[in-house]
Write a structure and sequence with these properties.
The complex is a heterodimer of chains A (318) and B (529). With 318 residues, chain A is an all-alpha fold. In chain A, helix 4 crosses helix 7 and helix 7 packs across helix 9. The two termini of chain A are 12 Å apart. Chain B is globular. The chains are: A mainly alpha (318), B alpha+beta (529).
Chain lengths: 318, 529
Amino acid sequence: MLAYIIRRILYAIPIAFGVSVVCFSLVYLAPGDPLQTILPADATAETIEIVKKEYGFDKPIPVQFALWVTRVVQGDFGVSISSRRPVIDEVMGSLSNTLVLTGFAIPFAFMIGFTMGTIAGCYPGRAIDRFVTGAAVMGVSLPNYWLGIVLVIVFAVEWMVLPATGMGPSGSASFSIFSLDDLRYLVLPVITLSMIPIGILSRTTRAAVAEIRGQDFIITLRAKGLSEFAIIRHVVKNAMPGVLAVMGLQFGYLMGGSILIETVFTWPGSGFLLSKSIINRDIPVLQGSILLLAMVFVATNLLVDLLQSAIDPRIRRA
Amino acid sequence: MMTNFRVAVLAAAAAALPALAPATGQAQGTVTVAMTAGDLPITTGSADQGFEGMRFVAFNLYDALVSWDLSKFDKAADVRPGLATAWDIDPANHKRWILKLRQGVKWHDGCDFTADDVVWNFDRYTNNKSPAFDTFQFALTRGYITNFESIEKIDSHTVAITTKTVDSQFFYNLSLVVMISRCRAEALKFDWKEYVTQPSGTGPFRFVRSVPRERMEMVPNKDYWDRGRVAKFDRLVLQPMPEPATRTAALLSGQVNFIEAPAPDTIPRLKSSGMNVITNSYPHNWAYQLNFVSGPFTDVRVRRAANYAINRPDMKELLGGIMDEGYSTIPRSTPYYGNPVEYKFDPKKAAALLKEANCLPCNVTLAISTSGSGQMQPLPMNELVKSNLEAVGFKVNFDVMDWNALLDVGRGGADKFPKIHGINISRAAQDPWYGLIRHVSKSQWAPAGSNWGKYEDAATEDLLLKIGAEFDASKRLGLLKQLNERMNDQAIMVWVAHDVNPRALSPKLKGFVQAQSWFQDLTPITITP
């Protein structure tokens, strides 16, 4: 197992390098000046040259990349062009805010999606199955940006029972998941963010449960006289690895931050940061955040693989 | 039994609702502003995030030598004394300005404001050999002080600034260069990353705290030197909120009580909820700068035709009335508007001019953006312009790009982009330089300045020389009017609209006067319980 983990971690190195090369190239291929945010629209050529030199953007792109990689391997991700804060602080701060959101959204989505999918899978073709399948399709089809705005209009504007935006009454610095007042700020973004994972998880679970229920060993279990509840326990255990893999992917995806949802709710997470840095061409933040997010994705997949192996020893043997 | 259980659950949920009762998120006496910016503006002097950063952060924490009079609703804002009480040209040297500094002013950190502070600030903005030089601030302010040559201290409260060329309106540029505390900067050993969280100015508000990307809090400076501008409320909170629907929801739900730029389609809803939606003319210009190097717009008849083709009342209707019709680079309320020719909607005249210019169909390519600072609603607005132009004989091709890329085109100049015949970049026009001169002066040919199309006109250059050398304000006003009239006669742009800067305020906020300016004064606001 240890060798497996080490091997997987080593695999992450070429992935990180590949991500950084692609990211660096894409950022430079896009039109626009990285210093646009700090330079006035009518900045003179002389001013642009002085500032470019100061920020190191006057060097050839391969040299810039080499310098950036050299600093990154030493743990220095540079400083944001627009905010002047260290990139590592920017990215880690926003990642932790997204983690709060995802940490609530994924268990919530798993709970609802897995339950719905299991029920539907147990009664294929019946009314409850059709209902769950319909709800799942709706979940993945609803534009979550639109849903977020609708929820805000209903719960924040019309009924005024939940806040519309932000991460706590005084911002993320004092946010606590143990404070009811702070938790109120989570309700609407978590529900909005959960909709797609609920749809995906319930459909995945439904398919897995329906398939497993048709397998020979279930007939054997039934012939042995096991209760329906006990049979479902076996079905669920067998369906779990596949569902966990999907959940892991969803977790990684959500950790990348949903740009639209975080923008609608002004949630200061990684999606909001990415969106801001793309618009501002804040290259150090863009590079740092994409690299770190890729690493989070790799780590999440590794964790899911390990969990799957723990649940289903056949995977480890394979 | 099951029914009873459900009833119990519903009852429990209903009982829990009061626990989720609305928290307004603001203390009594707090003005909470939702800005359009995506991040908090920098606090180390001049602010980024465009003029919104200057409006809410720089001009609240700091003062400039020359200030803006933002107290009037019905008159275009103009400059007034700030940290300098007077500025006069040296009679013996028309490049040398003598500035008398205000006595008895203290920085937020308690140090006295003196001439040494002013000299140090200019050093920090312009001299890259200075230990206090700040590249970021250099980048932000350079555009305002390109004509700055040097500064000298005359006595403890007098300085002299020398310019590179004679410029009778240099004092306008000084209004955008704010002074920060040398005392605080020295105490922090010129570490600007530290200064961000411990700024010290002389402005009407003191910095309290900020949460990056989320909020900045300030409290009134009770010792502010301008006693008429000591804020009466307890706290000012600034929140970046780039999404218009979110700003509107935040206002309607009571999380904020002051929002910038609500989307036009939400204005009826805001008004029906009792919010005060305020608009006013201000020096903003939504137009197309034209290519004078190559292409159809080198012919003045084509330029005039394009202006006659625009149906501005239709455009106003498209925006729900939230714009002023644009017939010149500056709004009509500007003191130096003069009496220029206004190209009112006349499609027949436009078609005739195109025929006369032998440009049918007249193929033009316009570079536009999907969004951007001051761009209003660029896509539907550009679509309407296209249909107007094509109705009279133009054939319009849009080169659509994002804001950043369009700015790059704008900086490069028309000769670098010969296939582009016009660019749609909204511009500020808050003073004669920004409103008029920079668009037509040969010295401002891109990439050196904002004359993107490389416009050149002997009569204009002659007027510019006279304006620069005219230190009598009333005579200069006459010359500026002539300049605007000349620019209109030559149809140097295709003018469409001036934004009217919509804002929405909670009905509890009283006393706010929306000045005809990019900048606004929050200090008169009072809050009713």
